[in-house]
Request: fold
Amino acid sequence: MLFNQYSFWIFFPVVIVLHRLLPGEWKKRMLLLASYYFYGSWDWRYLALILIITLANYVAAARIHASASPGVRKGLLAGAVTVNLVILGVFKYYGFFTGELVELLNGVGLHIGAPVLKVALPVGISFYTFQSMSYTIDVYKKNSIPAESLVDFALFVSFFPQLVAGPIERYNRLMPQLAKIRPPRSDDFRIGLYHVVTGLFRKIVIADNMAPIVDSVFSPHNADLTGAEVLLGVYCFSFQIYCDFSGYSSIAQGISRWMGVDLMYNFRLPYFSKDPSEFWRRWHVSLSEWFRDYLYIPLGGNRGGRAATYRNLLVTMALCGLWHGAAWTFVFWGFYHGLLLAANRALEKMGVLRSDTRILSAAGIVKIIVMFHLAALGWLFFRAENFAQAVDMLGLLVFDFHMTDYSWYMMGMMIFFLAPFMAFETWLYRGGDMERPLKSSWIWLAVVYIYCANMMYFFHYGGNVEFIYFQF
Amino acid sequence: MSLSISSFSSERKIAAILALELILVELFIFFYQDRLSGDIRNIKAIPEESRRLASFDGIKLVFLGNSMIHDGVDLDVFNEEASKAGGTRVRAIKVNPDGTTIAEWYYLFKKQFIWTGRVPDVLVVGFEDDYASDSRPASAVHLGSMDVSIEDVPEAMRDEVRSFDERVKFILSWLLLSYANNESIHRRALDMVVPNYREGRLKQRDLNEPPESDDAPALDYSYSRLMKFIQVLKENDIKMILVAMPVKQDYRLDDELENILEREGITLIDMREYNGLDDDMFKDGQHLNEEGARLFTSVLSRKLMKEIKEKPEKPDTR
Reply:
């Protein structure tokens, strides 16, 4: 069941009606059952994974909290983290690592086979394992107290709007809202609708229409690709992945709001970033904060001098890349962003780069364009089937750059779909307010909604395109 | 002018504007649907053409398929070849909605020819690759908008549009002209503003369909739709002829299809590799240009006339 399918929009009104009718505790139980039904609609067998992760973290956190012995506490934390990482490792990384190991051993003359495990990647496994782990770590660090009931905690792990693609919410932010669901407020409908409409638009209109163009450019059968087509294909993918993922997060935010739960903004106009550091404060905010708090800072953060800081940045970002998928291209993408962050930090220390807080100055616009292209270069590796393809494409960009009929077609499609959207994002950026249409004259809101509704009705892509981040 | 964020009077106004817009668009499409695309014009012309065909005294023939039949069969050439063949007169029409396969052809044929009682004598179905098999999903929008008559709705719901989402699409396209035609509107608008839109779309489609490799697994298709179709045609005494259409890239026919056709006594005219057709007689990978269509139709017509002459006369069904 996907947010952009009609079946979800039958499921959700039933949930919202029950949500309004049922009293407090029953409301939570109903939301938990609805969340399990939502997840089970992909494959009910994977509900077992959520149950194991829920129980492991719930029990471990309760014991950690109850124990005064540092050794016991540490052992329980290690046990809980191991359960999470083993489940994630088996389902997401087993094939990758065994494949690489076998290849390595074959390379040195040791011909061995590895047991093959053919299982589909459970939807959203990276999201809910990370969200659950953060809870246990927070309890261990005494930043949080354990959940009062198993139902509350189970709902925190599986709350359906953000279960399969985030945002990865922190226990201290989300749990109080779920434990005691607030009564509806008069602005809930309006704000929720804004997030749902703009999120659906980003997914259905922008991301889905960019998808077949991107697929054609990255197709291994595309023998007469040119540099111009690569460049436009990478631009298209930059917007496909942004609108796909931010669209999902926005819809999740909207439907949660209708249930009285405020989810965080996971994307804050990331392509208006002026440097890599700002990019990660705007792109997939919940994940970058997770890696900052649970990996970068424990590694030492920026407390151990320059070399250690750069090392910590590179390690953190390479693992962030690996989180996205079991392939070296993802690791490289993360490492590349680590390098950008380290270089940015070094240039700032040297006084070459200065922080620019002006909204749209000439220098700021140049920085935004440069940062967008640096991010786009990373997307080339992220989307490529393998390194060889990425390197070939880079070669075409440099040595065979010329416009073709197909590249004019790609450019026309980009302008048609992206120009109004970017104008809208620029307007939001200049206003410094993600909810600017709601605070402007109703005419502006009408322009936004009527445009979105018409584009979704007449210009949705006919094929089926799943949300990209479900695979992570 | 600024409104309180908690007031949703703006949303009510916007909803009213959108509702009004939908009504106006529905009315516009109702009156000007023909101008949206040649495909819609062709589909809307089917009832009139079938009526005229039904009033014809000789052998009534329908070419059924998709854009490959549209581009590949030249009715003038067919008529010329048919008249050269002498004997019983033959008249043909083409029914060829874009982007359709066997599922849509089955329901469309029933709606336009069986339920109306305008039964032809011969049905020539042009297909390529797996288009006659069950492997391609039927389009809920196509079925809802043009193909399924009210009598066949339960059958279509049971056999073709099974998921909830597909059923919603089916019903919406049955109810709303704007929904049923939004792909035509979409394409027409993009064709006006995007350079090389048609060629770009075709190239995009070709690139996103992996080429068939020699080591591809053996074909393993089922043919329940074709079997239903054959049954309906037999019940109505209509001779069916299948034509494997020529395309640039070779494709295979699987044994199961040939077994079914042999068992059911259906003629297959294999035009996949007609040597007279050069690559420059194709507009793209699949569709013949005018020169290709003339050559293809003249060859096909001669083969068809041999088959048709074996068809016994049957009572007038008007």
Notes: The mean pLDDT of chain B is 85. The first helix of chain B runs from residue 9 to 32.
